[in-house]
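User: Design a sequence. Structure:
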């Protein structure tokens, strides 16, 4: 798993400078969904896999905001966005979602946005989120997943090696199922685009 993590880290470092350019065509619609997701954040907030931190301008006022990413180049871009926007209560740390360096029960809210397609061991990453999120805290997720439609799902399985090879993202993850494997039980799922892009809200019951 360490070798896979390092491979994906290198791929995200490779595309970091062009990441926003490639995603820009989708961002107008995504910005709306980001705002909808983030309006429920409160207290001490952790965002996993911030990338260039496109979520940053959409946060309401929170006590503090910590972002992590395992790509050094993405971290540098995210820190530049903090400076550009003049956000004073945010920080970004270089960290692997599979090995969070925070004590248990550290955060009131944990946010992910199109991240769990790329975590090499998604269940381990979700277990780490459960550990650092407080009892009764929220996990807010905007994630693309495998379609369960008869023809689209198998097609996504067939095409999955292409984005994995290019930049380490899987298009056929079953994130709601992985949440249950990680020990979460209070899970609400809302389809945003077909049955592929979903808003997932989890209450952490320990």
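Assistant: Done.
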């Amino acid at each position: 798993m360490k070798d896979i993590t390092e491979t994906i880290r290198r791929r995200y470092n490779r595309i970091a400078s062009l990441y926003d350019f490639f995603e820009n065509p989708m961002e107008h619609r995504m910005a709306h969904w980001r705002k909808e997701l983030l309006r429920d954040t409160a207290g001490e907030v952790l965002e996993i896999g911030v990338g260039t931190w496109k979520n940053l301008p959409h946060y309401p006022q929170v006590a503090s905001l910590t972002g992590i990413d395992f790509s050094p180049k993405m971290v540098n871009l995210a820190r530049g966005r903090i400076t550009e926007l003049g956000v004073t209560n945010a920080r970004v740390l270089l960290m692997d979602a599979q090995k969070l360096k925070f004590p248990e029960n550290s955060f009131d809210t944990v946010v992910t946005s199109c991240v769990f397609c790329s975590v090499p061991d998604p269940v381990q990453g979700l277990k780490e989120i459960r550990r650092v999120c407080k009892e009764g805290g929220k996990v807010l997720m905007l994630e693309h997943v495998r379609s369960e439609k008869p023809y689209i799902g198998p097609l996504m399985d067939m095409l999955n090696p292409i984005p994995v090879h290019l930049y380490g993202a899987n298009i056929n993850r079953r994130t709601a199922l992985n949440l249950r494997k990680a020990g979460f039980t209070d899970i609400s799922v809302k389809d945003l685009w077909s049955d592929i892009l979903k808003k997932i809200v989890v209450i952490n019951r320990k």
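The chain has one domain: 2-144+176-203. The longest strand covers residues 133-144.
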